[in-house]
Write a structure and sequence with these properties.
By secondary structure, the protein is of the alpha/beta class. The protein has 8 helices and 11 strands. A 6-stranded parallel beta sheet has the order 1-9-8-7-5-6. The protein is globular. Belongs to the tetrahydrofolate dehydrogenase/cyclohydrolase family.
Length: 303
Amino acid sequence: MVHIFDGKRLASEKLDELTVRILRVKKTGIIPKLVAIRVGENKASGIFLREKKKAARKVEVEFVIRKFKKDIKLNELIELIRKLNKNASVHGVMIQLPLPASFSSEGRDDLINAIASEKDIDGMREDSPFTAPVVQAVNYVSSEALNIVRPPLKVAPLKVGVVGARGVVGRKLVRFFNRRNNPLIQETIPGKGNESVIELDLEVGDRSLKQRMQDADVLICASGVPGLIKGNMVKKGVVLIDVGSPEGDVDKSTYEKASFVSPVPGGIGPLTVYYLLENLVRSIEVSRKPKYTKVRGVILHHP
């Protein structure tokens, strides 16, 4: 019998726990504040921002949406981001993707890299100190699946397929699962990355795509193509983690072949929002930790 993961319920519980940490922060006189920049009228972006604002309201985090028309100039947005970087009352800055088609991938990257790394709570910069919320959510759910599925999946290394491996989210997921000591994989080939991670890119036109998809024990779907994944594309007992938005990559009829499904809506999405806010709180907690330097064997404390 397939297990349907309830991300909405879990995220609600985790937000309740996060509230305790936020109250502790507020007692020091700090009001956690996140600024999200939205460009254009993308429908999915509007949905995501409403969900983020709703969750922020629940935990009493100040969530500000700066909305701009699609024809705004890149340098104007970069200047805004630089001002937000300098604003001590702002603890996190994020760009709501996707951007309008008028923005190139280079322009998108310029915006992301304009965000100070310590305020990049969405984990989009290459040198961000934060793991992207969606990656944290997928990691949690995949680990949960291994604990729940009965009979258990085969002993690691499992084969993890990432559909949409060249997209913004897909690249981060591939990089994460290619890390050494990943509990799902536990196998890395020096100099080659991880042969247990199957990169499935729709743009390549690979005729073996369907066969390689069927090799996956865990299939993470992040193509953004609604209903792309059909039952004849996956093996029986597969773990399906749908990251597609806003409608989901996995056709609902595919569920009957799976042992575990994180659906859209109600799966990865709510948990991703939680991890975004958790990153925000952690950024404040880290910034308030005492700093020390050692001078001639003497440890000096910098308040």
